[in-house]
Amino acid sequence: MEKVLLLIGAVLVTIFPQSDATVQLPSATAIFQQGRVYQIPCFVTGEEFVAWVTPAKPARPGVPAIPSKRITEAQPIARKRINNVGDNYQLYIKKVTADDGGLYQCVGASNSSTVTVSVDINVGNESPLNVRLGRKDIIRLDVSSYPAPTYTWSKDGQALTFDSRRTLDRYTGNIVLNPVIQSDEGNYSCTVRYGIQQQPHNFPVFVVVIPRISKPQGDPVRRQGTVGYNITFRCDIISGTPEPKITWYVSWDGTNQPINSLYDSRWSHPTMEEFTITGIQQQDKNKYRCIAENAAGKDELRFEITEVSVAPMIEIMVSHSEPKEGDNVKIQCKVPASPTPKVAWYKNGQRFGDTKYPEGGKVVAEISFPNIQWSDGGMYTCQASNGAVDGHNQEIQVEETVAINVISPPKLISPPDNVYTFIGNRKNTSILCEFSGYPEPMVKMTNDNGTVVAEGNGSALFVIPGTYTDEFFGEYNCSAVNRIGRKNTLLSLLVATKPEVPRNVVVETTCKDISLTWQKPINDGGLPITNYVISLLSSSDQTLRRMNVDASLRETKISKEIKPETAYKVSVLARNDAGYGDNKTVPAQTKKFCVPGKPQITNREKEIESSFTLTWLRPTDDGGDNNIKYQVEWGKRPITDETEHSVEENIPDTSHKIENLEHGAEYEFRVKATNQAGAGEPDIKFFLVKQSTGMYTIETKYVNFEQEFELGNVLPRILKYFYDVILFKSLLHQCHVSK
Fold it and tell me: Is the pLDDT of residue 705 over 50?
């Protein structure tokens, strides 16, 4: 948990002109420690709080200027926000840094107050450092404060001076070396002074870094190539100081075969880290190597082209590219059989079945249409691969596409349905005719006066923007024509009507709700059903409730306004854009009682004895009938209609003793509450019966012979007594034998 330090001090007393409006801070100064959390209180009374204003900081080497910013309750920034408690508008600063120091201003609508924040020095670095030879680098001290401290540096016991190559960041104490030279290595000391505080820092600086090459694919890197494709090997340097020199060689041994474009024009180095072979040939199957080296050492990475393959070549043959319907058409895709290819046909991007067979050193994938139809037309693509890979080591997929256009007369894609609307409909009404055929037919739509109302290629769409007169109603003729033939079809724009009544309306009731189901009207009036309207009526036809139900639903439940043992009527009607249809009304009599709620089994033990008492709580809802009985059902888990189980009914109490359970078996127990309306939902629990201990429990009784004699039944009791004694001795004998 973060510790939040609240700046507490004596409140400055400021004398203002006679006014109740004030902006007050506890102190004019504050000292913060870096990395911690602080809150600066600001009490604004008698006026509106406006904002906290942060200090601006000038730019310094490597760090841009920090502008002053306004912080409001609605607009926090970075690690700063406003916490408002009453008149107190606290400035919350998280993880304080030296850049947080400076003059802060708490601003009200007419007054303001300021506080100067000083930031104490942090711990800084005392660990060994590495700097990179020949590069710009930093000896990091990272000790900062506000106001900035002073830094006194020495190296190997000698005072350190600064110049254009070696500069000091006066805000952090860091030394910037540009470039790093070998003599920069040594033992560095810095004394940091902040006020009366003095903090020494000592650490060594090293200059040497050995080159290291990234090897995510291991060493060596083995690749396959394909004739005519390019391949690129990379020698990525992770580290190395001074900067390593990269050299490429043919072979894994020696340095007498450097890779140079003078030896082969297909060799190139897009960068010093890359080696590219353009247009791979069989002779490029070889071993290669890169070496990264500097004064500190070297690293190498080996490469090998293990195989140079040939990408598959596709030859497509078509018996007819523009056949007529009924023609016999074959499409063949021929691919060299070595190396063994994978060949597949696709139609319009979807996999299409074919037959494959060898022929003259090639694999042939054939599609056959013995009686081709217009629907068989489309774009057919043959795709082949044989394991050859590209420069990114991805398998090469070669493909060729052919268009099959089946010449056919115009045909209806689907018979058009009559269209319905009504006068006054504000929605657009569309009449559409669609035809297939090749060449694509020209389609014209005419009304019953012979006027062309729409036309297009393959289809004709007539959009009526709102129907306010009856001039559009009537019959429309769609005619499609191409050079092979003609096709006509008729459809009508008819007047829509209100829907008929819903069918098979059925109600089911309880004491507190009415469930209603129905079926869609046989005739929807020509327009889609938009919704159903359900009405709840009293027995005297007074409307108690009215609700809309989505057209996709065929059932609903009414719970509000429902009372037990009351006669109601329920009506349902369908609605479309033409209006509301007639309703179907049915009677609904609610019941006096509802089934009770679920009891709650209270036993908490995980294991039970073979004889135990099941207990439960009475349900919170008795369904209106407080004369509740219980039904207890138990059996080995799980209880089904086929499994053997026991049932005890009409139990008046909330407990029931169950005996003779089988040791080691898991049982399922169910408890239902029942009343005059029936049985409610059961509560179900599972318990494991403890294993048998091998001990016997024998119940003994004392017999009062005098009392029994007075009752006149002494002889049967005496006989029963001797029988129990004999049974007891028999059980003792069994226990002895079992041992």
Answer: no
